[in-house]
Specification:
This protein is mainly α and 214 residues long. It is built from 8 helices and no strands.
Length: 214
């Protein structure tokens, strides 16, 4: 089968003064370099114009492109998971460290902040202190984050840690005690009011004259 050398060269963006095999090798090397930078543009070729050796080399290019696209999808899924507040597995962290070292460092920072908040929530004497600890940690993340991705990751991790804390028995116990204390305080105040009304010979809000005995 006769190959249209000019068409092949034009389709692949080749230098026609260079032998076709070397041009394809150069194209593969350029594709690898582009893939590592995440800027690969997929192009479809009419394989009927190429011999078997040419087609095989084009398939190598397609394979590189496909691998890079898959890598990007995996990386995107992991980053979305981290930003949503989920904890990453050891395997996911390793992948992040190898492919996206900068985001890996940001995740480690967010992870440390989450652990610090966890300890603060445990030490909180009541729900008000716990809420304040969460608010302070979130504000620090907002003020010091560099870029939206880091901000989402840090605040997402803090948010999920606080939400997890609200589900713990420790928090529920503290809240129940607070509710009991609040109810007791309301009851004491009500008795004081009733006592004052009785002393003045007035009726209470329940109707009738108050017959209050201390």
């Amino acid at each position: 089968m006769k190959i249209d050398t000019h068409s092949v060269g034009m389709n692949l963006g080749m230098d026609l003064s260079m032998p076709r095999s070397k041009q394809l090798d150069k194209k593969i090397a350029a594709t690898k370099a582009s893939a590592s930078d995440g800027v690969v543009t997929v192009k479809k070729y009419d394989t009927d114009k190429f011999d078997d050796k040419t087609i095989e080399k084009l398939r190598t290019i397609d394979s590189i492109v496909e691998q890079e696209q898959n890598r990007d999808r995996v990386g995107e899924r992991i980053l979305n998971k981290a930003e949503s507040g989920e904890k990453l597995t050891a395997k996911e962290m390793k992948y992040l460290a190898e492919k996206y070292p900068e985001m890996y460092e940001k995740y480690k920072k967010a992870e440390m902040e989450r652990e610090a908040l966890k300890q603060q929530l445990k030490a909180a004497r009541n729900s008000v202190q716990a809420a304040q600890a969460y608010s302070d940690a979130t504000m620090r993340a907002i003020k010091t984050s560099e870029g939206d991705g880091e901000l989402r990751m840090r605040t997402g991790q803090l948010r999920e840690e606080y939400n997890d804390y609200l589900k713990t028995n420790g928090y529920k116990k503290k809240k129940a005690n607070e509710d009991d204390e609040e109810n007791k305080s309301i009851a004491v105040k009500a008795m004081e009011v009733e006592g004052q009304l009785a002393a003045e010979g007035k009726t209470s809000s329940f109707g009738g004259k108050v017959d209050y005995k201390a």
